[in-house]
Amino acid sequence: MTTNQLMFAIFSAVIIVFSILTVTSRRILRAATFLLFVLVATGGMYFLLRFNFLAAIQLTLYAGGIVVLIIFSILLTSHISEKMEAPGWKKIIPALIAVLAGAVITISTILQYPFPQQVMADSERTDIRMIARSLISTEKYGYALPFEVISILLLAAMVGAIILAKKRKD
Question: Which of 59, 61, 53 is nearest to 128 (CA)?
Fold first, then answer.
């Protein structure tokens, strides 16, 4: 087993284990921390695949920004020692059916897809200037407008969560 295969196995195991812990944890702050481990391992997977720019975005934007925003919202709106109620069987059985159906569809799709290999010519390669122009552009293939819309959406969600938490009478 090569080092790349070993690192892939480690990152995959971390992603699977902490993903399960994220959705099964009854303490919301722990779930957010487990989500942080999933996002960091995903960034590690991108580094392993040599998608360095995507890995840097994953670590700074998602692991660094979004999880901090989630944890900040949790600390503002709820008590840390609160436990979420355990789901009953009426919720567990449909959830397991949905998970199994999703897993079957995903695995069958991956196994049936031929994954053709594409070789890019040197003239087709993307340089860092082209990526930077796309990130700050507001034109057809630009990303500035979607980032702004998502930031407004996250701000509205955080303000809404704070307002709902302040209205609650304990």
Answer: 53
Residue 55's SS3 state is helix
Is 26 in contact with 86 (CB distance < 8 Å)?
Answer: yes
By the 8 A CB rule, do 165 and 77 touch? Answer: yes
Task: Kindly report the backbone phi and psi dihedral angles of residue 24, in degrees, each rounded to the nearest multiple of 5, phi listed first.
Answer: -105, -10
Distances in Å between the alpha carbon of 134 and those of 61, 100, 159? 17, 38, 30
Q: Model's pTM, two decimal places?
A: 0.66
pLDDT tens sequence across 18-65? 999 998 888 888 888 999 999 999 999 999 998 888 888 889 888 888
Residue bearing tokens 């999933």: 38
Please report where in the chains the tokens 């989630």 appear, as a residue: 70
